[in-house]
Amino acid sequence: MRSISSAMRSLLLSGPSSPAFLPRATALCPLLSLPFRPDLSRPRPLAPPARSLSKKAAPTAAAARTRLDGRVPAMEAREAQSGEIHVIVGPMFAGKTTALLRRVQAEAGTGRTVALIKSDKDNRYGLDSVVTHDGTKMACWALPELSTFQDKLGREAYDKVDVIGIDEAQFFDDLHDFCSKAADHDGKIVVVAGLDGDYKRNKFGSVLDIIPLANSVTKLTARCELCDRRASFTLRKTQETRTELIGGADVYMPVCRQHYLDGQIVIEATRIVMDIERSTEVARC
Fold this sequence. Notes:
By secondary structure, this protein is an alpha/beta fold. It is 35% helix and 17% strand.
């Protein structure tokens, strides 16, 4: 496909010179709260005289402390059991799976028990591992639905899992219900990676539905294959119109907004180059 990419670059970049590289945005400065300024023009009311606790009030205060002390352990246990949800989204080739594996491996490095899940629809690199585009891999469970995870793992083993990573999350229809139960009721840390939009820039699966549940959301970008700008969108090179179409660089490319809007030119250029290559191969035969 190198010849295809080279031909598309020459077709699309033959016009005006490509825009300069856009630097990554810098972090926003934190908001500063203004200090409280009392109104010194008004006289302050005199404080009421201090009173000692009566003998009748003492048992009441002690009882209040006893009730408070009784609540603290329950509150601490509740806090210890509460989970988290972290969402990683972006176009294809943005490094979502790499970010997911780094997060899961970091959690494992702290002594937590981790488990990794991916959709069994994604069989590009086999079903027993989550694999990044640069070849990094980690063993996983390939499932048709997230709801089957607990049964596959077993109740006792599931209870011991602290962190659950989910790759290609857009393929799971039960993503919202699973994440809600795992974090809210089971106390799991759930790290989700997936596409937020399809090749038409429409919502893809249920990934956007869990953002209101999330503790954090990270939007990654790739590099536009045609001009090296930051790419936020995925362009499909083929004429296939199905939303779910598993593929890699042979089917998709990351692009900036300008080249996404000019996508029809890219698709047509790809078709022309492929037709030329096909004709050349037939002529050689």
